[in-house]
Structure formats: structure tokens, C-alpha cells
Amino acid sequence: MSSKKPLLSVRDLVVEFTTERGLVRAIDGISFDVRHGETMGLVGESGCGKSVTSLAILGLIPSPPGRITAGSIQLNGRELVGLPESEYRKIRGSEISMIFQEPMTALNPVFTIANQMKDVLSRHQKIRGKQAKNRAIEMLELVGIPSPDKRINEYPHQLSGGMRQRVMIAMALSCNPKLLLADEPTTALDVTIQAQVMEQIVKLQHELGTAVVLVTHDLGVVAESCQRAVVMYAGRIVEQAPIIPLFKNPQHPYSAGLMASIPRIRADKVLELPTIPGTVPDLLHLPEGCRFADRCQYADDRCHKEQPSNKIKDNREVACFHPCGEA
Amino acid sequence: MSVLLEVKNLKKHFPIHGGLFHRVVNQLKAVDDVSFVLEKGKTMGLVGESGCGKSTLGRALLRLHEPTGGTVILDGIDITKLEPKALVDARRDMQIIFQDPYASLSPRRTIQQTLLEPLEIHHIGTAESRQQKIEELLDIVGLRKHVLHRYPHEFSGGQRQRIGIARALTLEPKFIVADEAVSALDVSVQSQVLNLISNLQKTLGISFLFISHDLAVVQHISDDVGVMYLGRLVEKATTTSLYNEPRHPYTKALLSAIPTPDPTIKNQRQILKGDVPSPLNPPSGCTFRTRCPEAMDICAAKVPLQVEVGSKNEPHWVACHLYEPS
Fold this sequence. Notes:
The structure holds 2 protein chains of 2 kinds. By secondary structure, chain A is of the alpha/beta class.
């Protein structure tokens, strides 16, 4: 908001995994920016590389088998790729935080909430004891946990799924990070609880000015809470655009197909849901040209032979030879 | 239209053991007094949040869970009173498609073995006609014949779910329970499988109980929809009536909680407070009253009865004190 420079800048990032069946390129040259204080959606289907992207930003790619083989990730102008683990530890939790999909596995079952929250605060903010506990209670109150002074002494299994996710949010935001990575934060929750949690994330983001990267497969959630979104397919970015033009006029045939096939409450029943034929390609046997070509109704010879490069126009980017809405 | 399935006061209570002598200390009322009717060739959707008892209900109908009380009448036969042997025969008419296509197919069997098994158990046809039958089925669900000799791990999630559907179809059942059948699939594949199910329903005239937490999916596939909360059916109506005019405060909240995939619409969302109470210790009277924005004194005292609020063409009932004639 204040500065023009992006908060996070990812350039030509490549992440590879060694598997028994061969080398898999989970991410193949992606570039995007996250601006100060914005909420950006990172969308795609399972296996498209969206979670690997967020792990790469946090420096949490399991190595071996994974490795960042090319590209750069800059946070406020500082290069994160190749940073020693000791330095990364100072950044994680204080400058970049993360919320995971399954709060039960992300919280330690043998420690109380107070214990775990104080741990984060003492490591990064150097506040301890009573002071840290008060700060933790404050954070729990902020995320809407009733009677936080009692709840803080409970263990994770004593809380419901929605509550646990709130604790995760409170913990992630307790050191005022500049960037919050939320990986499918509401997927494991029921719709009514999902609505509560998303409302909370959006509210806190406004209050604290944290930039949020929302990794999700749920386009409904993206439409409601993001300003911009990046659509990934088989390890590449196919389209990125501000949210309204992206939903009103998706340019990549994959984004268009994805938008059309979301089941939504309709005023009139449709006989047949629109679909995208076929399935996602195997990352070990990727086609030579555009990765979506086999499933694309507009594909021609060129699409099968050449990879399209990103075209930038009016604040949006699309990697396609035949973008929708253009002749 | 004739009735295929009639469920009356179905109950499934799980005993909770505890204490020194492992006695029954409590009952978990997973399904409590559920009644509904499903017509031939129709699909009924069943929605609700996790733990509301929708899967238990689906399984109790097939006696995969032994019901604690009530009756299930499928095509004139009371399923709940059948002897084990007769039950095996009755199961020909009722099948289930499971949620997780990765867990519901045996990893050690080829697709051919999986699909032939039901026919062999029920001694249907000759080896030759069985083979022909399963090849036809693969064609119906959109897979090619050469997949027969492959193992489940060689398929994608969507393909496995098609195999699960083919398996449910082998015995030409009259009734299929689809328990979260598309929830594990990605959107682009999900819509393919949904279209397949609705085509099957039209061409083969099978009735489905379609269990899902996704209201948009249920709307697309169902003729009627029932909404469950903490073991009870709180509202049931034709799909049109339920989505256009939801009556129960819980149904209203569920519908308003769905994120709209359109960034230009900022809907007035009604967000429910709190969590679902523990089914071990449900609130008295109406179980929804602890989260209900319109709760009154009577809600704690009395269990609400079903009130008919629809019309002749659009039957619709709701169990809520707001609609009870005073």
C-alpha cells in the first residue's frame, strides 16, 4: 500500500522432486507478485503445484527429494532462495506465517494452546511469561474465541475443528507477519464454520494490513475474499488477473472451463453441467506443447508443439495462443 | 408415481461404553426418528454438516448398520425384518457408492475381478454372459474394455469413481445410496461424474439417495432434498421449493454460507454462531436452538413436529416451532 514495490516477488521458480519413477518438475517456471496488504488467491486442482509453491516460499520443501533448481523468491527485496536454515527460522513465524489445511496435525497434541502460542512469541518477539500469555489471550479474543482466558489452557483435542483453525490463525498473526500463507484454511471445515473462519481472516487482514496468499481449490472462497488470483495448471501459471475481470471474462480456456464447471446454486436447473473433458496430465509424461492442449477445445497444431509464453495486457497475464474473448 | 422406498421412524443409536465394568453409559443418537418416502426413479438429496448422521442414515437403510428401531420398506419388502439369507437377496436391489474411490476398491483385484464378484455371489448368468455384462457396464460409465485387467492404482480418482459406479450397477439395483460420491474429486472431474449419475438415473430409472455436504451439487442432481441436523431431518421439500423458499433457520443459514463464485455479488451473509453441539449431549427440545437466531422459549421445551408448508405440486415440510399453528 505504502510502497510501490511488491512485498513478495517470485521469478521463474522451478521446483523438482526426485521420485522412483523419475524427476518430476512440480513447478515449472512460475512468476508472480504479492503486493502489500492484498489478498491473492492461488487456485488450481490437486497436483497443480499450488501447495508446493507456498512451501517453497516458506523454505519448507522437503529436501531430499525436493529442490528449488532455479528462480528467485524475494521478500521486500531480500532473496530467500539459498538462505541458510538459521536465517529462515527468523523469518518464518515473524515475517511470513502459514495456516495449514488440517489444524489437528499442525498443532502439537501434547502441549496446551498457551504453551504453543507463548513459544512463538518468545522466539520472535522476545516476550515471555505473563506478558506473553496476555498477548496470546488478546490474539485469541481477536479471532473470536469465547472465554479465551480459559480456552488457552486447553489441549488441541478439546477444541472443535473451527476453534483449532482459529487458534492457528491467532498463532500465525501473533507476531504481526507481513505475509500470511493460508493453504486450504477452510477445506476441512463445514460450510457454516467455513463462513465464520473466512470472515475472521478477512476482518483481521483489514485490521492488521497483512498480505494474504490464499491457496485453495474453492473458487467461491476466492471470489468472495481475494482482490487478485493466479490460476495454476500442471505446474505452470496459466492466467493471473484482478478478481472481477477473471471471473467475468476468463481468458485462458482452462480458467473458463473451471469457472463454468463449479457447481453453484442456480435459479433454474440445468440438464447437463458444463465439464472439461479428460484429466490432468501426468507430471512425468508432460506434453511437448501447452499442457492443457489435450483437453482444450481451441487447441490447434501449434498448441501441441509449442509452449505458449505469458502475454501481459491490461494488468492481466495469460499463457495461451488462443485466449478466449479474442479472435 | 409409485413409492419405492418408505422409511418410518428410523433410529440408529450407538451405545457408548465406559466406567468400571464397561457398561453402557450413554447412547449416541446418530439417526433419531427419521421418516421419508422416495418415489421410483427419483433422486433424493440429503444434506447436512459432518456428524449430523447422514452417512449413518444411508448405511442403516441398507442394514450396513443394524437399525435400532423403525422400518425401511423397499418395494414392498420390510428390510429391517429380513433374515440374513433373505437380506443377501434383497441387497441385489440396493447398492452403495462410497466417498473415497481410493479406499473402496480392493487394491489386489483387477477391475474385472471386482466387477464380476457380485454376479458370482448371486449366481447370475453364465461365465460368458457375465463377461458381456461387465463390458457393457464399462461402456455405460465411459471406460474402455482394456481397463478390465488393470488394478485400481493405475487409475485417476475420477476413473476409480466410475468403476465404483459400475460395480454398484452390476446387479441392476432399484435403489443406490451415493455417499459423498463426488466430494473427493476435483471440480472439473466432479462435473463429469455428476453428469454420468444423472444420465444413469434417466436411462435406467434407478432411484438414488444422494448424500452430500455440498448444497450446490445436491441441487443439481436431486428431485427432493432433505436437510439433517444432529440426527434429525429438519426440513424436506422438492428441490425447487427448498432452494427458493427455505423455511428452517438452519437451511437458510446453510444456503447463505455457501460462497458465491461471483465477485460482483456481495451477499448479506447470515453467519451462525458457535459449533454443532455434541451429539452425545444434544440440547433439549429443538436441537438447533443453541445456534438459532430465532430461538424462542418453546424451542427448549418441546421437540418441533413436522408442519406442512408447501402446496400439492411442491410438497414441503419443516420441523420448526416458527411454523407451528398456535
